Amino acid sequence: MISKAHKKVGFQIEFKTDPEHPDWTYTLAEFAAALYTILKEEDIITDCEIQSFDWRCLYEIQKLDSRVKTAYLTEWDNEPGCPNSFFDPDPAKAGLWTGGILVKDHQNSIPQMIKDLGGACWEPEDVELTEETLQEAHNLGLRLSFGHGPNTAGTTFNADLVSKLIDWGVDGIITDDPEC
């Protein structure tokens, strides 16, 4: 059982799946159902944010309960011209991590796409974030936390970059660097 502290803190849980290797995990529906069972049993549905690069997982958990807050992770290689980018001209590549849903059908805007899909938060990698896309996300009512650290484009902690993004008004920082 999760302690009473959960009433004071939130939990951020990441689905780790890969659409190129579906055999590495349970099916998306099984995975979402198992997580949802725990969220219900522990009475922490509204205390959690579920995040994933594989957006198909987020759709599955949202089907189970609209109260589950979902955070849509993206990374720097979503820029136009990168392989398997959301902007790839090949719909199979552009929709690989989104379950076939294409950004071109959402005004070529990742924040708009996330909003349209029912997401609560966009969590881009620090290097892909611009002040304009941050403002767009906020205007759409999305929270925005950015990823930063050693597993983010191989960078180390960059205090100047983090300070700049804080000045822009980001809502949070996700890092795996304990010295941050």
Q: Quick gist of this model?
A:
This protein is of the alpha/beta class and 180 residues long. It has six helices and six strands, in the order βαβαβααβαβαβ.
List its traits.
single chain; 180 residues; alpha/beta; 6-stranded parallel sheet
Walk me through this protein's architecture.
Helix content is 30%, strand content 14%. The protein contains six helices and six strands, in the order βαβαβααβαβαβ. α1 crosses α2. The longest helix has 14 residues, at 28-41. It is of the alpha/beta class. It has a six-stranded parallel β-sheet. The protein has a domain at 4-126. 30% of the residues are buried. The radius of gyration is 16 Å and the shape is globular.
Strand order of the largest sheet: 1-2-3-4-5-6
Strand content is 5-15%
Strand count, sense and barrel status of the largest sheet are:
6 strands, parallel
Tally of DSSP β-strands: 6
Tertiary shape: globular
